[in-house]
């Protein structure tokens, strides 16, 4: 199995501002090949969560004794930072593979996602909408067991995102957002109780997989895949926005936190694609 990561730059794109008043749920007609029902799940990010281990019988026995048949690796509390591109919108023409990224102002992004929350779609309380989420992640022998001898590879982790499709309305003239069909996704908590726990104690849904690889295929990997959680925790951010009764109001200084979502996809029909 080969895993390829692709980074898409958007530094040259102009920041766009906009304001709307409503998000109407509508899962259908967002993809001509896949028929979706709100909500649905996507795996967006992938993280390496172990060292690359080439487990030989000699190494296994040196670590665990003459009868040992597995090799361990450093298990520690790491900070996994999700979606630094949380302000990006993806334009996708149906039946067309071209993708264009457009970066919105942080306030506009937070405002639009507050509309998604205000629509109160099914399972909305299972989504973490922090602007930047730092997961406190530690591998466990149950989900990422020690590596058997005669195998070489590493573990990767895919967090689960929960998504809703819908349409924006009541937008300011000139914002070009009226009628925009969007896909809004937030990181999915393990259960609804997680949102009441302090940051750093919250657990998320996801899946780990063992990827066969060698040091020759993946040279120069550091043994520890990520900084510790304590080193990364300061990167977590949230946005403060208006209440659900006054979405987008510049005059409202509500103490309620409306947390920004991790990513949006704006889907444009072929007739409007340039």
Binned strand content:
25-35%
Radius of gyration: 21 Å
Largest sheet: 11 strands, mixed
Helix % is under 10%
Strand segment count: 15
Distance between the ends: 36 Å
Derived from helix and strand composition plus strand pairing, the structural class reads mainly beta
Please write the string of helix (H) and strand (E) elements: EEEEHEEEEHEEEEEEHE
Q: Give the count of helical stretches.
A: 3
Low-confidence residue ranges: 1-14, 84-101, 240-262, 268-274
Number of domains: 1
Rounded average pLDDT:
75
Molecular shape = elongated
Signal peptide: 1-18
Pfam family, one: DUF6060
Keywords: Signal
Topology overview:
Blueprint: E1 22-25, E2 40-43, E3 47-48, E4 53-55, H1 57-64, E5 70-71, E6 78-82, E7 88-93, E8 99-103, H2 106-118, E9 127-128, E10 133-137, E11 147-148, E12 151-169, E13 181-188, E14 206-212, H3 229-232, E15 263-268
Parallel strand pairs: 7-15
Antiparallel strand pairs: 1-12, 2-12, 3-12, 4-12, 5-11, 6-10, 7-8, 9-13, 12-13, 12-14, 13-15
């Amino acid at each position: 199995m080969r895993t390829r990561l692709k980074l898409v730059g958007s530094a040259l794109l102009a920041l766009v501002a906009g304001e709307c008043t409503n998000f109407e749920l509508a899962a259908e007609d967002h993809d001509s090949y896949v028929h979706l029902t709100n909500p649905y799940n996507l795996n967006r990010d992938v993280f390496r969560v172990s060292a690359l281990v080439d487990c030989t019988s000699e190494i296994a026995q040196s670590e665990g004794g003459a009868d040992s048949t597995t090799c361990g690796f450093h298990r520690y509390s790491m900070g996994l930072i999700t979606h630094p591109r949380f302000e990006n919108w993806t334009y996708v023409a149906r039946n067309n593979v071209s993708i264009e990224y457009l970066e919105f102002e942080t306030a506009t992004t937070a405002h639009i996602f507050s509309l998604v929350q205000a629509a109160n779609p099914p399972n909305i309380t299972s989504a973490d909408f922090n602007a930047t989420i730092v997961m406190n992640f530690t591998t466990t022998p149950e989900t990422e067991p020690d590596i058997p001898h005669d195998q070489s590879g590493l573990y990767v982790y895919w967090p689960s995102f929960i998504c809703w499709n819908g349409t924006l309305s009541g937008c300011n003239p000139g914002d070009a957002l009226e009628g925009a069909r969007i896909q809004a996704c937030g990181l999915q908590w393990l259960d609804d109780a997680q949102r009441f726990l302090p940051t750093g104690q919250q657990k998320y849904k996801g899946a780990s997989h063992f990827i066969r690889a060698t040091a020759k295929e993946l040279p120069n990997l550091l043994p520890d895949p990520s900084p510790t959680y304590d080193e990364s925790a300061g990167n977590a951010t949230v946005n403060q926005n208006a209440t659900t009764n006054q979405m987008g109001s510049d005059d409202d200084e509500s103490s309620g936190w409306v947390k920004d979502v991790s990513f949006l996809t704006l889907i444009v029909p072929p007739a409007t694609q340039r």
